[in-house]
Amino acid sequence: MLLFSGIDAPRNTDRLGDQLPSARVVSNNVFRVDGKSPRNDQLTVMVMQWGQFIDHDFVATPLMSGK
After folding, report:
1. Which of 34, 57, 31 is nearest to 44 (CA)?
2. How many domains does the chain have?
3. Within a domain: 43
4. pLDDT for 1-20, tens place per residue?
């Protein structure tokens, strides 16, 4: 039986013990456009693809030793 210790759980309180906002609330406030969330589906997919490309580029970059 696998026991969950909670060490891998995302943090949900700040240093003072107050509840942190959800990731969706933070995202909607950061990317607010005239008081509304952006609704451009093509832009959203393009940004996701760009982030995935950059992530895979970093992961695939070989490490060089300082010899």
Report:
1. 31
2. 1
3. yes
4. 556 666 777 788 999 999 99
